[in-house]
Specification:
Blueprint (H helix, E strand, L loop, with lengths): L13 H10 L6 E9 L3 E6 L8 E4 L18 E10 L4 E5 H5 L1 H8 L6 E10 L2 E6 L12 E4 L20 E10 L4 E5 L7 H8 L5 E10 L2 E5 L5 E5 L20 E10 L4 E5 H8 L1
């Protein structure tokens, strides 16, 4: 339900009225108003109850999924939109007309809580991620599923394409991450439901331990070495050999099997630092 208009402030200055009006706006409120300006970025809206200047703004991606463009909205049009964010410093309420056009979808997505497990069926696989048609969830007016898994959230393991991990029609259970108000999606994580192989590796490995691995990639700053099926570490250029070399290909090539020493295990950032130079020294 739309919030009631604020009345006159009984002698308060326009600036005080502005601050109190904006501070009273909450995410999820529904407001109506008149379009004051249209640009490629979106539309500015004079909200009912405060006519001094436009406080509402609907970004181009938050407009109707039917019209798709700010060009379809004209100055003077009356619109109703849901508040998705309030920026007190900029004096702006970010809004979405897509939300008010799809109230069932919005209500479903707002009911979800971070960490909740959701099940569904893979609806489509794209280069940027995977759409999931959620059980008991509404249809999306544009996409082949209300749920969406970005590429990094598909798996802890390395893979070339999303189809290496999932297939269209496959059933999956995912963890709900957040409500993407721009696209009207439930952002999901498939990998969050799986054990993190890096943490398992870290529990069984210590700094100073010697490992064997295969060089998988050369970079200007060093080389990546696969030490288990799931774990890669980085040998920085200065840790490749002594004396130092200017380029990694001077001493190793992709596919080489080398011996390395673990120099750092960063469990928070999931990073493994290795040294070939220290391994060579230990063997001398």
């Amino acid at each position: 339900m739309a919030r009631e208009r604020l009345g006159t402030m009984g002698g308060a200055s326009d600036e005080e009225f502005f601050r109190k009006f904006l501070a009273a706006i909450q995410v999820g409120d529904v407001y109506s108003g008149i379009v004051a300006e249209v640009s490629r970025r979106g539309v500015s809206v004079i909200l009912d109850g405060f006519t001094a200047r436009p406080l509402g703004f609907v970004g181009s991606l938050d407009l109707s999924w039917v019209r798709f463009s700010a060009a379809a909205v004209e100055v003077g049009h009356r619109i109703t939109a849901e508040v998705t964010a309030v920026d007190l410093e900029q004096g702006r309420a970010w809004m979405s007309t897509a939300a008010t056009e799809n109230p069932g979808l919005w209500a479903f997505l707002k009911s979800l809580r971070a960490g909740e497990l959701l099940s569904g069926q893979i609806g489509a696989i794209e280069r940027f991620g995977v759409f999931v048609a959620l059980d008991n969830g509404p249809d999306h007016p544009v996409f082949p599923g209300v749920g969406f898994i970005t590429i990094p959230e598909l798996s802890w393991r390395r893979f070339e394409t999303a189809s290496d991990v999932v297939q269209v029609g496959q059933r999956v259970s995912c963890e709900f991450l957040q409500f993407d108000t721009t696209n009207g999606e439930a952002r999901l994580s498939l990998r969050a439901t799986q054990p993190d192989p890096f943490q398992t590796f870290a529990e069984a490995t210590t700094v100073g331990q010697t490992l064997r691995g295969q060089v998988t990639k050369l970079a200007p700053f060093g080389v990546f070495v696969q030490v288990t099926d799931d774990i890669e570490g980085l040998v920085h250029l200065q840790e490749l050999t002594w004396p130092p070399v200017e380029a990694p290909e001077a001493v190793v090539q992709v596919g080489d099997e080398i011996t390395v020493v673990v120099t750092e295990i960063d469990r928070d950032r999931r990073r493994l630092a290795l040294s070939r130079r220290q391994a060579s020294t230990a063997l001398e």
